[in-house]
Amino acid sequence: MSLRAEHLTLRYDDRVVVDGLSVRLPAGRITAIVGPNACGKSTLLRGLGRLIAPAAGRVLLEETDVRDLPARELARRLGMLPQTPVAPEGITVADLVERGRSPHQGWFGGRTAADDAAVARAMTATGVLELAARPVDELSGGQRQRVWIAMILAQDTPTLLLDEPTTYLDMAHAVEVLDLLVDRNLGEGTTVAVVLHDLDLAARYADHLVALRDGAVVAEGTPAEVVTEATVERVFGIPARVVPDPVSGTPLVVPVGRHRVAPVPPGFASEADLREVVDEPHPLAVAKVGDRVDPTAAEFVAAAPLVVLASGRTDGGMDVSPRGDAAGFVRVLDDGRRLALPERPGNRRIDTLRNVVERPGTGLLFLVPGVTHVLRVSGRARVVDDPDVLGLWEDPPPLALVVDVEDCFVHCSRALTRAGLWTDATPATEVPGTKALAEAAVAAREDT
């Protein structure tokens, strides 16, 4: 069941918390809403669940404004667990969980066998069946939280909204609850939106992430798309390293604090430092073009029938894989800010593609026959099967690499010259030389 907000503004009295926000929860998927404290996560969830009336905009459940739905009808279609629910004094666990069935019962109540079965399933799944006769106010915080989750599961709705469901739970019970949400999602196609503070668990269990800061969406997409070092620092204001989770392969965030940070291995910070050690250093980088492939560099790309792709492994090593095809097989997009490479079974190395998925930093080296200089592009790559991208080639490949360009350099290639394996080939005609590329680099820098 689809749920989305359009230009939603939510406020408490005169204080605006969410301002003009639009977001869509993918139907039949699990969405995690993440962000720092007081960024509007809970407020957004309360707005989606009709606990707060919008000051502007609207919330649509299956294209119907939630304000137009009778309360009982909404409760049969959408279950909401707020962050700090309050139980009636003296109510028992069984009675509280049974209240989740009220939207399915008649105006005068009356439990059915279906109600009893739903309550029993929910209490068993959350491990609170043995607490059935206990008053809720006598339970620990973790036990109480599991009872509330049992109540929302007993409500048996196609859409679930949960605000910090793992609050008060220890590690084992937190994982059990999230596993339970995945079970419900996979078994019944339930659409789930959950506010979580634990970014690692959000990345592991959610199909879709929405990252908020100051009441606005900063990033939205799959965990791999959202949980990047740049986004984590932008959203949470702390530098971090993002590595693959050894259990799930999903992004794992390692924050960098002020203490107990391993020292960076010694290295050279500048060319001046390098010159103190090496006489006449090898002129590796002839010119830096900038953060895009300018039109002159694009001519070099169009003449290159061979691209060497380098991707970093999780163990710190590097996989290098050549990609060869007719000259011009690489597509230059967005005024040189993106490149697209076809990925066909004949030239695909699965280890390199796996590295690209897990560690998106990528280097490309463009080589032209008979030319002793090369073009190097570095950036962040992703593997896609988007029909719009695959359609860039007359013979569409099954996959493509899309590289967001971060840096572009012109290199001399003394090693290639010495090897004589590439530069002895018949030179390609009308290929920009180092002078032309360097002049274009200067012009590109002046333009920016």
Summarize the structure.
The chain has 448 residues and is of the alpha+beta class. It has 15 helices and 20 strands.
What does it look like?
This protein has 448 residues and is of the alpha+beta class. It has 15 helices and 20 strands. Strands 13, 14, 15, 16, 17, 18, 19 and 20 form an eight-stranded antiparallel β-sheet that branches. It has a six-stranded mixed β-sheet with strand order 6-7-8-3-9-10, with helices on both faces. The protein has a four-stranded antiparallel β-sheet with strand order 2-1-4-5, covered by helices on one side. A hairpin with a 2-residue loop joins strand 4 and strand 5. Residues 278-286 have low confidence and may be disordered. It has helices spanning 41-48, 71-77, 93-98, 113-125, 141-154, 171-188, 199-205, 223-226, 229-236, 271-275, 295-303, 350-358, 387-390, 414-419, 434-447, and strands spanning 3-12, 15-25, 30-34, 56-61, 64-65, 78-81, 159-163, 191-195, 208-213, 216-221, 240-244, 251-255, 285-290, 306-312, 318-324, 331-333, 338-343, 361-367, 373-384, 399-412. The protein has two domains: 3-236, P-loop containing nucleotide triphosphate hydrolases (Rossmann fold, 3-Layer(aba) Sandwich); 284-447, Pnp Oxidase, Chain A.
